Amino acid sequence: MSRTASEIATQPSCWRRAAQAGAEFEGLPKPGERVAVTGCGTSWFMAIAYAALREASGQGETDAYASSEFPAGRPYDRVVAITRSGTTSEVLALLGELRGRIPTVALTGDPKTPVMEAADAVAVLDWADEESVVQTRFATTALAFLRAGLEAAGPLPAGVKTVAEAAVDAELAVTEPLAEAVVAAEQWTFLGRGWTYGLAQEAGLKMREAAGAWTESYPAMEYRHGPIAITGPNRVAWVFGALPEGLAGEVAAVGGTLVAHRTADPMADLIRAQRLAVVLAESKGYDPDHPRNLSRSVILPE
Q1: pTM, whole model, 2 decimals?
Q2: What is the pLDDT of residues 144-186, one digit of tens each?
Q3: Using CA atoms, how far apart are residues 107 and 91, in angstroms rounded to an integer?
Q4: What is the C-alpha to C-alpha distance for residues 196 and 140, in angstroms, rounded to an integer?
Q5: How many DSSP H helices and E strands does the chain contain?
Q6: Residues 86, 125: Cα–Cα separation, whole Å
Q7: pLDDT digit string, tens, across residues 207-224
Q8: For residues 220 and 244, is the Cβ–Cβ distance under 8 A?
Q9: Would you state the torsion angle of the CA atoms of residues 173, 179, 182, 184, taken in this order, to the nearest 10 degrees?
């Protein structure tokens, strides 16, 4: 078993620990604050998911940006940065630019890195850090931590499960066999609405990173506006969360394979996409722990 596969399997226990830690951490955004969330790569997609979920929960206007595209002159009450390594150049540069002007909080997996001094508050999730270059459990644990903070501050939107409930769904997601049609496909399109759009983006990224797969990601309602043209036999449309009315019939009409785990927490469903990425990588003879052209952290020359 690859290191990545081993780390994927630990997510239910990581989320349960995050449920308690996130509820108790005092540095997270307070209800009513205007907040921005930032990160790079996978962390950016988790930022998108959290931002949409926080705003849908009625806890305040929340934006998400890739750190390199952050509008540093825009006023916010707090900025949340997600950085597994604690060394990502764009994140550290942004935190430095915001210092003294906007309170910042960072989520990291490594307490021995520059982010510890760069942010005003730091949540260290070192028990969810990874050896693999590809992010899996740290990303979802960071999102579970942030979701737990939302739970502690007020009610979640209708239909959104608690982190504890998501962990139960994750237990099935780490063991349930992947459908043969999904494993054998040649192309995968991931779809989501609201906070699950960030998860769809992350699923596509994970497949590209680990397996070099042909994947695309879109808001679910945008799928009809062009992206459905790519779907057909031996190609998958995978929906995270609620399935838009009529979409199943449209995918069937063009000969595509629909994946929609409608009762599962969407974050748990992401585990299935992570596992699929590992399976595909190994089938091609790739090392999922050390993908081509990637490193654990992007550190730019000064």
Answers
A1: 0.96
A2: 999 999 999 999 999 999 999 999 999 999 999 999 999 999 9
A3: 11
A4: 12
A5: 11, 9
A6: 11
A7: 999 999 999 999 999 999
A8: yes
A9: 130
Six-digit token string for 21? 């830690």
Alpha helix stretches (DSSP H) within the chain: 3-9, 11-24, 42-56, 89-98, 115-118, 137-153, 163-173, 180-183, 196-211, 247-253, 266-283
Whether the CB-CB separation of 39 and 86 falls below 8 Å is answered with: no
Residues in the chain: 302
**Do residues 148 and 161 make contact, with C-beta atoms less than 8 angstroms apart?**
no
Burial call 25-41: b when 16+ CB within 10 Å, e when fewer: bebbbeeebebbbbbbb
Chain-centroid distance of CA 216 in Å reads 15
**Dihedral angle of Cα 183, 268, 136, 12, to the nearest 10 degrees:** -120
**CA–CA gap between residue 256 and residue 254 (Å, rounded):** 6
| Long-range own/partner contacts, residues 214-218 (CB < 8 A, 24 or more apart) | 214/186, 214/187, 214/188, 215/187, 215/188, 215/189, 215/190, 216/187, 216/188, 216/189, 216/190, 217/189, 217/190, 217/191, 217/192, 218/189, 218/190, 218/191
Residue burial 207-236, b: 16+ Cβ < 10 Å; e: rest: bbbbbbbebbbbbbeebeeebbeebeeebb
Q: Checking phi first, is residue 194 left (phi over 0); if not, alpha (psi -120 to 50) or beta?
A: left
